[in-house]
């Protein structure tokens, strides 16, 4: 296995004014054991297996609708729940990874295996760490610690779900990790001002939406870093908290 190390950021909040706003009713990734979060995918296709595929909502609850076997559907979103990965195929409509064959638009090499594309690694998000599996999805008796970051070189989709290869014959389940996309980082010094109206969303270092808080409208925040992940520019306003550059007004010193 090859571990991907990443420098940890400072821990103090960088606010110039009090403005963090809780989002009412939003679920945090670790507060709800059934919900882990979304990962944006390159435009891809899922093909329903011979058994057909039930459609679920974002929380894994059956909707009572089904997709016919061998039908093909476009997806660009992976939803990771406690029982595995789901792929978005419509507004609040998802299919289980185990019910479909996943193909990236580029890099697909057949039999459910494809290159990781722009993704560089995974971050272990499970409180209990991440079990390791072989290429068939069977446990091999090893584990990765919670919070650790690992390089990947392959995405493997088998009947039990989606797995990422972190070493020779060693895979982690998408249930236990979040994809990490390597990006560009640059130290800066400046102030960002949020716009009027709705709160400004916050994201973590991997570009994942932080669901339980946001920045209040018309507030100023110190920023010390610009990063680009997946073609989107981010400005850091606190430890592992970023805003999309296009969502704020930036003044560099």
Automatic annotation (TrEMBL):
Going by the UniProt record, its keywords in alphabetical order are: Signal
Name of the protein in question = Surface layer protein A domain-containing protein
Indicate the secretion signal residues: 1-31
The species this protein belongs to is: Companilactobacillus heilongjiangensis
